[in-house]
Amino acid sequence: MKLLHAILFIIAAGHLTLAQTASKEQLIFLTPEWTGERFEDGRPKVADDILRRMKSVAIEEAWGVLRNEGYHNQFEGGWQPLHDDVPVVGRALTVQYMPNRPDVSEQIKKKGTEEGQIGNTNSWPIDMLQLGDVYVADGFGKIVDGTLIGDNLGNAIYAKSKTGVVFNASSRDQEGLSKIEGFNAFVREWHPSFLTEVMLLSINSPIRIGAATVLPGDIVLGKKEGVMFIPAHLAEKVVVTSEVVRLRDLFGITRLKEGKYTPGQIDNKWTAEIERDFSKWLNDHIDELPVPKAQIQELLKKRMW
Fold it and tell me: In terms of C-beta density within 10 A (0-12 exposed, 13-18 middle, 19 or more buried), how is residue 163 classed?
């Protein structure tokens, strides 16, 4: 009962701003394992360095780490990305859209107008974007008349975030959006229609994207295979694990090409001799490897024999 009362207290403490938005207290309550810096709105603020390094992480590597940590519902596939080769990495700013209900949507629009919002409600979250954010929206899979952005809003999004979007809905102006260098969009489909009969319900609250649960501040990793939504407190672990795998793979391939070890030796659990060789190889090539030097030095400290 104490937990239930705590949850009810937090819900009651929420406030209506633009649309129903989770308060700072709610976001802290929902992300208790994050102990680092937060945005003013309460979202976890994963370091820029982790975001930069996350771009090199493979979807399969992130998936493996999250599965091992007990997170089984953080991946969603089935997208039509604007570009296959432009990763989307950033902190999730979540938005919930629903089929229009006039009495509710009018209240939301009224509140937004009172607080200085201009234009259609699908542009309001864009005003809240910060550098490194990814606009993640559940548009309940609507395609026809479910186009959340076109090229005008796409340019505005990229100007503020320098990333892209993930929409469980559609978008329009594919040709125009494709001209925004560095921008990418993961959408369900592309359609020339305009957005109608859709209302904005919440900003920066937990949402569902297909089979995945997404919280504000989760790290979005979007690549050709699909999109991972990585809890903020696991982002660094995902990155570091990926970098270690990358180094071990590079070492293994190098030694196989040199003929020093057999495939059977590399593909099985490494012997102490191979592990020592790996440590020496790391130290000898520390300035040439595709992983930050500081991270390799930290790895070598942990590998002291």
Answer: buried
Separation CA 290–CA 253 (nearest Å): 14
Element (H, E) at 272: helix 272-284
CA 226 from chain center: how many Å?
11
- In the beta sheet, which residues pair with residue 185? 165
The H or E element spanning position 75 is strand 75-76
Terminal Cα distance for the chain, rounded: 51
Return the C-alpha torsion angle 165, 168, 171, 177, nearest 10: 20
User: What is the residue whose two structure tokens read 């125009």?
Assistant: 176
Regions in the chain scoring below 70 on pLDDT: 1-19, 303-305
CA–CA–CA angle 79, 83, 87 (5° rounding): 85
Alpha helices (H) in 135-270, listed in sequence order: 151-161, 174-177, 235-258, 263-267
CA distances from residue 108 to 72, 139, 153 in whole angstroms, order as listed: 34, 17, 20
pTM over 0.70: yes
